[in-house]
């Protein structure tokens, strides 16, 4: 044997010290390193595949972690920067609260200083995204939030001042302290200046209602975060120019020394108007983190799935390598190397793959995170960090964690093969044909029992509730079902291959006989196929079900042929009663329904709940809402009805028929939950109230959107032209037809799942690597078999065809098993993980066409991989291949 001649001197060295403790860990001296290095040099492609499998898993997980961490860190830093030295923040609803609260708070004996703030997300002319504008009293902000006091920039540009409708107003000079009080000036953060391509002295135009307000950029905010877009005005100017007279959105409070913020907030709560809450910087950070926590958790789990798949690939390669080198390890044992030495040798090979793969993965992950943050922002497609442009920073703790995970995945993948190699009896393992013995142990009754227990535990875990709002047991259920399915595959494969019908043709008969009588290597190769294809199937079913559900939901919510809104984003644009009357009176418009969208807070530590005021027939709410429960018909004397989304029901424990109170117009008003409806747009809840009830209780007559039914014979284009002409400021209205809204919504959906698709593709690629490694190792281990076949007259192309048929049959079994297991995983994703993460329910939709295409691709790829792998085995001369048996 040539390999024995090459390593004989090294083995002699091992034998000479076999009785010492050197063999207790691994072959003595540099023998272990030489054996590992020789194996890697002899099979560089297998080594590269193992490194890449670990690297891809580590890279995806590390990149997701870096991106999320960078976005959250920047957003939290900006929130803290905007709060400045404030110990507490009184925050009200989006529509604001009565400014009369401010003097009452400022006079409290515990308060050292209080700063009132107006906060508006203003639509910038020519852009869909909004700019956060804050109105502050510079004399008070200097004590509490000095970062919100602008720095006046001297400029030679002529100062410009414009009124709401282009009318001029007196203006202060372009420079000097009085610019801080000028009603026509604004101070922008560096990120806002960069985003808008402006500099001090330029003009900024924002939309208020359907009118334009032109402001002069007078300077820069000294410290408002490096990546968040924000502008600051004088508070009086903001209330006037942005039409927020008499209201505030928040009050920043600095307490006197010795006053405990938590105690003060608790004591202050009963004296605050309904909907206004005292929150600490910690509450703000928690609320900011909650915006994307479930999304981030799911992305991290998906990234770890790629690493998990890589561990299975390492297991496949190491198991097949151990089978191929079984005689080598037996000889090492025979000349004095202990079981522990063989164990450490195989585990060390896996550890080296893990170290190299993890190091490469960290480098790839850092580069990937930097590229994503630079070109796509920090929201990873989820829309949670719009307006934030963070930069990636190296952090030793996440890097060390993912490095350790990569090494651990590779070591765990090598552990079972290492134990098998160490426990093998040298005398029996030295004999040819013993390769099937260890694989037979994979399908023992004990293994099947463990597999069934894992599957049963997974089913039980799927029934358990979330932990702290996250589907921890749902993730555990997926891991257990996947583990149980993979452990059960050897027994399933042996049973299936044993009952395959025989063929009268020589080549098919050889293939069937090989799989029936020696299925060991094939069952090992199945692990990678089943793992990757089941995960691919589960994700495909979940995404398809979600996409179809969103499309069906949109069709029910969009019954009108034409829709308009005051602006695509922000809350500065609205339609006044005069605008609504003009829209309704426009020729060609037969009927209108107006909608008012705002936000209220039901829990200060959670993001706000959307409040939607729209016409609803209480006797038939299902005509406008996709209800998930039977509606409750209000009785005379009952509080006004509201309809809550699934997310609101889950987060706040509401149910149909319950009496609840909602903070409206500074009061807590009673309502009856008349039904629960499905809403895929608002993760933290939405409440629908009839327009008439909303206006009667709040006095708010503004609206943001309208649904338009057109007269017969009037085309949408005609109606749009007439509306633009008849409504003052109509050129700023945004129009869309239902098909356009659905298409845009589905594009957003696909963007949100872009990273999911990428992670799924990585898992598939790793799985295909496993197919290649599996059949490549099988072909190399069966060179003597191929040599014997060549001796009896079988042609090379026939052997190649035989291997391709074996690859296709094994892959077909793996695909069928993966499809079955993937369907189970999809049920957990659809009915457990998704509702517990995002509080959305949906029906299962099977993408049969996509699954058939993926299954065909995997089977064909396996056949081609087996065919290509056979070339190396058949390149060995037939005589040389069998001479070991002479």
Structure overview:
The structure is a single chain. This protein has 886 residues and is of the alpha+beta class. The protein folds into 3 domains: 2-68 and 296-550 and 750-885, no CATH class; 88-279, no CATH class; 562-736, no CATH class. The protein contains 29 helices and 21 strands. The strands form 3 sheets. Strands 17-18-16-19-15-14-20-13-21 form a 9-stranded mixed β-sheet. Strands 3-4-9-6-8-7 form a 6-stranded mixed β-barrel. It starts with a helix and ends with a helix. Residues 1-26 and 156-174 have low confidence and may be disordered.
- Structural class, by secondary structure, is alpha+beta
Kindly report the oligomeric state of this protein.
Answer: single chain
| Form type | elongated
Our Rg estimate from Cα atoms comes to 34 Å
Low-pLDDT sequence parts:
1-26, 156-174
The percent of residues in helical segments reads 40-55%
How many domains comprise the coordinates?
A: 3
Ends distance: 12 Å
Proportion of residues in β-strands:
5-15%
Give me the side-by-side strand order of the main sheet: 17-18-16-19-15-14-20-13-21
Task: Specify the number of helices.
Answer: 29
Average pLDDT score? 81
Main sheet: strands, sense, barrel: 9 strands, mixed
How many extended strands? 21
Main location: membrane
InterPro entries: ABC3_permease_C (IPR003838), Lipoprotein-release_system (IPR051447), MacB_PCD (IPR025857)
Biased composition (Low complexity): 166-175
Membrane topology: Multi-pass membrane protein
């Amino acid at each position: 044997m040539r390999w024995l001649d090459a390593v004989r001197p090294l083995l002699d060295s091992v034998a000479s010290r076999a009785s010492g403790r050197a063999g207790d860990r691994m072959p003595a001296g540099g023998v272990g390193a030489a054996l590992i290095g020789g194996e890697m040099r002899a099979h560089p492609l297998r080594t590269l595949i193992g490194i890449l499998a670990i690297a891809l898993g580590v890279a995806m997980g590390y990149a997701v972690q870096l991106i999320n961490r960078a976005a959250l860190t920047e957003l939290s830093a900006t929130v803290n920067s905007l709060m400045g030295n404030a110990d507490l923040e009184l925050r009200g609803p989006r529509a604001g609260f009565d400014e009369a609260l401010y003097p009452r708070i400022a006079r409290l004996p515990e308060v050292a200083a209080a700063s009132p703030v107006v906060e508006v997300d203003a639509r910038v002319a020519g852009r869909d995204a909004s700019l956060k504008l804050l109105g502050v009293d510079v004399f008070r902000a200097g004590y509490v939030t000095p970062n919100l006091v602008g720095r006046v920039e001297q400029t030679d540009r002529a100062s410009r001042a414009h009124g709401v409708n282009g009318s001029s107003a007196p203006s202060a000079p372009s420079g000097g302290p009085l610019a801080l009080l000028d009603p026509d000036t604004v101070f922008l953060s560096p990120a806002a200046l960069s985003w808008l391509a402006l500099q001090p002295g330029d003009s900024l135009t924002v939309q208020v209602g359907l009118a334009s307000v032109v402001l002069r950029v007078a300077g820069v905010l000294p410290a408002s975060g490096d990546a968040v877009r924000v502008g600051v005005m004088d508070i009086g100017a903001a209330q006037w120019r942005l039409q927020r007279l008499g209201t505030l959105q928040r009050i920043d409070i600095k307490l006197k020394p010795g006053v405990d913020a938590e105690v003060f907030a608790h004591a202050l709560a009963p004296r605050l108007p309904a909907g206004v809450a005292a929150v600490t910087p910690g509450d703000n950070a928690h609320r900011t983190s909650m915006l994307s926590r479930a999304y981030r958790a799911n992305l991290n789990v998906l990234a770890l799935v790629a690493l998990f798949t890589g561990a299975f690939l390492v297991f496949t390669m190491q198991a097949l390598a151990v089978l191929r080198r079984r005689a080598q390890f037996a000889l090492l044992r025979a000349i004095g190397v202990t079981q522990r030495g063989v164990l450490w040798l195989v585990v060390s090979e896996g550890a080296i793959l893990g170290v190299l793969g993890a190091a490469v993965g960290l480098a790839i992950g850092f580069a990937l995170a930097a590229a994503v943050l630079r070109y796509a922002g920090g929201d990873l497609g989820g829309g949670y960090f719009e307006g934030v442009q963070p930069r990636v920073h190296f952090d030793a703790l996440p890097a060390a964690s993912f490095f350790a995970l990569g090494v651990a995945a590779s070591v765990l993948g090598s552990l079972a093969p290492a134990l098998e190699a160490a426990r093998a009896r040298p005398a029996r393992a030295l004999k040819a044909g013993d390769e099937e013995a260890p694989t037979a142990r994979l399908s023992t009754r004990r293994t099947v029992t463990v597999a069934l227990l894992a599957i049963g535990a997974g089913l039980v875990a799927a029934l358990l509730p979330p932990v702290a709002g996250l589907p921890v047991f749902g993730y555990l259920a997926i891991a257990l079902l996947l583990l149980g399915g993979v452990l059960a595959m050897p027994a399933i494969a042996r049973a299936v291959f044993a009952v395959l019908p025989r063929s009268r043709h020589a080549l098919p008969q050889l293939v069937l006989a090989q799989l029936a009588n020696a299925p060991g290597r094939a069952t090992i190769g199945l692990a990678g196929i089943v793992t990757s294809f089941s995960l691919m199937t589960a994700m495909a079913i979940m995404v398809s079900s979600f996409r179809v559900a969103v499309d069906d939901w949109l069709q029910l919510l969009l019954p009108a042929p034409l829709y308009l809104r005051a602006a695509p984003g922000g809350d500065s644009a609205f339609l006044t009663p005069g605008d609504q009357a003009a829209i309704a009176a426009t020729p060609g418009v037969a009927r209108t329904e107006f909608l008012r969208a705002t936000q209220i807070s039901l829990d200060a530590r959670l993001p706000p709940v959307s409040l939607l005021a729209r016409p609803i027939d209480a006797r038939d709410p299902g005509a406008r809402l996709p209800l998930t429960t039977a509606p409750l018909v209000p009785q005379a004397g009952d509080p006004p009805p509201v309809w809550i989304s699934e997310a609101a029901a889950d987060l706040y424990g509401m149910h149909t028929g319950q009496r609840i109170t909602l903070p409206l117009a500074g009061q807590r008003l009673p309502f009856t939950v008349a039904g629960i409806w499905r809403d895929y747009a608002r993760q933290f809840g939405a409440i629908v109230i009839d327009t008439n009830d909303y206006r009667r209780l709040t006095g708010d007559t503004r609206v943001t959107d309208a649904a338009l039914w057109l007269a017969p014979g009037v085309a949408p284009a005609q109606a749009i032209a007439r509306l633009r002409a008849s409504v003052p400021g109509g050129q700023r209205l945004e129009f869309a037809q239902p098909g356009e809204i659905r298409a845009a919504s589905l594009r957003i959906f696909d963007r949100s799942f872009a990273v999911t698709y990428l992670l799924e593709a990585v898992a598939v690629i790793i799985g295909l690597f496993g197919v290649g490694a599996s059949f490549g190792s099988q072909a190399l281990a069966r060179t003597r078999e191929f040599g014997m076949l060549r001796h009896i007259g079988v042609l090379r192309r026939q052997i190649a065809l035989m291997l391709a048929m074996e690859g296709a049959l094994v892959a077909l079994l793996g695909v069928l098993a993966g499809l079955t297991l993937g369907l189970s995983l999809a049920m957990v994703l659809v009915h457990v993980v998704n509702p517990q993460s995002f509080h959305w329910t949906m029906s299962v939709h099977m993408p049969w066409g996509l699954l058939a295409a993926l299954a065909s691709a995997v089977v064909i790829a396996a056949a081609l991989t087996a065919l290509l792998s056979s070339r190396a085995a058949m390149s060995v001369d037939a005589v040389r291949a069998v001479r070991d048996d002479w």
